[in-house]
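Now for a typical sample entry:
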Amino acid sequence: MNIWKSKIRFDQIPAGNGAGSANCLPNTESSTHFEVAGANVTRATDTRLGNSKQKLQIPDEIDGRYNLFEELATGGMGRVYKAYDRVLNRNIALKILRSRFMAQDEIALRFMEEAQIMARLQHPGVVPVYETGKLKDGRPFIAMKLIEGCTLKNLLTDRSNPKQELAHYINIFEQVCQTVAFGHSRGIIHRDIKPENIMVGAFGEVLVMDWGLAKSLDPKFASLQPSLQWPVSKNEIDDEIEDFEDTKVIKVNMVPARMPEENITNAGQILGTFQYMPPEQARGDHDKLSFQSDVFSLGALLCELLTGSPPYSSVKAEARRQAQEADLRHAFNMLNDSGADADLIQLAKHCLNENPHDRPKSAEQVALSVGSYLRGVQERLHNDLVRRIAAQAHDHHTRHKSQVIKQFRNNAILTSIALFIVFVTVGSFLLMYRNQQFHQRYVQTAQQESARKELDHKLENVTALLGKLSTNSSDFSQSIDTVEQASQLMLDADSLAQQTAQPIADKARVDELRSQCDSWKQNLILLADLERISFEDDELRPVKNRSEEVGRRYQTAFQNHPLKPLDGPLEDAKARLQGSSIERLLRPHLLKWLSLAVEAEQRNRLSGLLKFEGPNQNQMATEWLRAVQKKDSDTLVPMTRFLLSAKFEAAELRVFAEQIYQLGHPEAAEKILLSAQVNNPESYEVNRDLGRLYRHIPGRSSDAVRFCTAALYLHPRSPLPHLALASALREDHKDAAALQELKNALKLNETDFQTNVLLAELDREQGRFAQALVAYRRILTKPEDLSREQLGKTRLSAAEVAIQATASDAARAPALRLEALNFLRNQWVACSMDRRPEDRSEFESWLKNEIFAPVRKPSFLEKLDEKERADWTTFWQEVESGLQINP
């Protein structure tokens, strides 16, 4: 039995004090506290409730189904009543929009959005929504489950000290983390996690309440965003509820649909409760809110469980200051002095980091950490039990040994002293040996069982992580991170397998799972590299030797993967390809590589690997590729109709469309891609290629934007569709929208080469040379990720922009000129070390035409101080003598 997960103490929950329980109505001299989904209020006396209901004209019967009883709660947008469902014969909670908002459609939409969010979260820790509807006067209502119990805040208030029943409260905290983690898995953040919003039911259930501030991070579900300002003072309460005392009301000011929360922040309004609020939320940075924001609030809740107090002050003004400045010194001191286990203290501090990136990525990781801690406690209890049993066994054998010795002494009276000594010696030896063997076997069994449990736990976590992986995406970085996380869990698996009772079988389990991890990692890295090659092919098209460069990139991508299509006998390479789980995803890349192959041997090798299964597909593909190699447009264009009838897959049709486009037939390429899009409307790759095609067709820029937008909708978390849409918007002369998409792509990958190059070009066109220089600097922070051509292009562009920026920034002109000099010197050194004549020749020509010709003017030299002039003069001399330039 798991003694850590103790039962709920029902004596802590007053009878009838649940939300809407049948016998919880107070007398006229008192008030009762209720916890209802979406509200946390104090109910006034019966007389006032009756008066309020009569004043607001709430009918006793709704929709011919619900009989309405007393009012339970008042929120910012609605009131909550206890009701009876005559159809299903049960008590429910009914939330009705307040009459003052009847004419405001935005309020009603936000009211229903809360119900939609709760309905999407089908989880035991979220209050179920039964139904939504409207009263006769048009006001919407929400029917939901009636919860009986009390809040975690009440339970914590009743504790005499934080150490009292801590195991019980950590178990509640784990269930809260699991509920919030479920919301994160659906793209929803709560934004107001605190003890008042956590209900502990009468039967031990734990529910996370009040999703009124919840926000969906998934753009497909984003709609209204309410502006909340709470709590409000007593004199700000609406006249409708002025008869209620000690009532917390949320004042809601709606904004138009899809208005970004940055506008709300600019108005000075902040969502949430400062005592548990992350810094980014307290500062009003709504665009920085993420799953890690809820993780901070979970850390604040854990801090209160361990210390008895939340991280920040109970005084609102001071709590606001501490939250905005992330002043956690007092909280960390309380944690250090709490006497709790170090694992729990470390977890709370980890969650309370000021920087969201330093916190756990989601509530799921927090739940896993708490679960691991609980299992560790259980293991320690088990080990203590093992030690007690071993001690009892030792005592038993010690007593038995004494009895045997006494018996031998009695027999010695009747026998000789010599026989007595022999029997005592032999008996003692046997007893000691048996005792030692028994103890060793028992300890060994306990250790083996402990190692097996820990190994099973690790392998279950790894299996769960691998189950989340998918290759049906263009953004493989997140899947690669998941594989890395699984690999970290496998680090200790080998040693644990050797410690179990069945080391050979357990070692085989570990090896099999590690092989799956390695295979996933290799496949995902290869697919990510191939996707990047396909996307960057646009950049290489103006290059003279495009086919050789793309072929070289394909060969580099495959060289670290076990497939190695160019190595070994052809039949072995075929077997490796057919046995791969990603064969279908690799075929279009191999087909494109084949179409660009220059060497006959490489073409024959790749052609032998690609065999199509459909009728006439092999013959059709062979004739098509032969015509592509010969650049025979007269054959290719008529073949388009037969190509579509051969029922090739969408990925193969994309390659055929690109090939015929390269030969100058965009209309044929468009026909092929549109056919593929009709059969695969949700294909990211097809929509992306259509957008890219229309970018290069005059007058079709709006179509390019449309298909690039569709591709972005299918994969919003990848920087590549943002980048493609930005390029299409530039072609459509929508520079402001293009700039925004480039910034969105930059948030996903700050040092991406293509993103920063496009951003720099846009800034240069509009005369923002300083911003363009910042983009080039970002690229150069990771030179190891760039090809030789990309690195050289970036250095030269950065030098040119730095010189251009001196005209508008006189104060920093000397520093900018020196920075330009360093860019040029680094590229000169790189050209000299590579020993590629074409690179050196291109660099020399660029220096003459772009740099030395304009800066040799005396007016420029006069502006340099002695050190700068000396640096430039030295560099010119080095170039003139080393590269033999005479500008």
Remarks:
- Residues 312 and 322 are 6 Å apart (CA to CA).
- The chain has 34 helices and 15 strands.
- Confidence is low (pLDDT under 50) at residues 1-52, 223-269, 854-864, 882-887.
